Amino acid sequence: MQSLKTFSLWLIVALTLSSAAGCSSWVYRINIPQGNFLEQSDVDKLRVNMTREQVIYVLGKPIAENAFDNNTWRYVYSFNKGRSNEQYKSLVINFENEKLASISGDYEQPENFTTPLEQ
């Protein structure tokens, strides 16, 4: 009889703890940055007609590349996803004939983006 009471008590404690673990407001979630973190100073180094290798040298390789459109690269960064202080930034880079043609997204276009690098 005593072992049944002990087992029941442990079962209740285990069920209570497992149900409490499902409450996301009680569980600490670590802030993990996702994607490519870019500074505006990095984006300012981009110039029209840069090769793919030059873009990779300046910004690094994008985390995810589009398998269906090799001419578009997306650099995406998110932090604190789903929270009130969520951060999200993206930069889209378009290539034409294996050369950098345009950029768009959450970063300002560099002042001298349209001035090609000296060859």
UniProtKB/TrEMBL annotation:
HAMAP family per UniProt: OM_assembly_BamE
Record gene name: bamE
UniProt keywords, alphabetically: Cell outer membrane, Lipoprotein, Membrane, Palmitate, Signal
Highest taxon in the source lineage: Bacteria
The protein's assembly and partners: Part of the Bam complex.
UniProt keyword Magnesium, yes or no: no
One Gene Ontology molecular-function label: protein-macromolecule adaptor activity
Name assigned to this protein: Outer membrane protein assembly factor BamE
Lineage, highest ranks first: Bacteria, Pseudomonadati, Pseudomonadota, Gammaproteobacteria, Alteromonadales
Protein role: Part of the outer membrane protein assembly complex, which is involved in assembly and insertion of beta-barrel proteins into the outer membrane.
Similarity comment text for this entry: Belongs to the BamE family.
A GO cellular component annotation in the UniProt record: Bam protein complex
Membrane topology: Lipid-anchor
Pfam families, sorted: BamE
Domain annotation Outer membrane protein assembly factor BamE: ranges: 35-104
A GO BP annotation: protein insertion into membrane
Subcellular location: Cell outer membrane
InterPro entries, per the entry: BamE (IPR026592), BamE-like (IPR037873), BamE_dom (IPR007450)
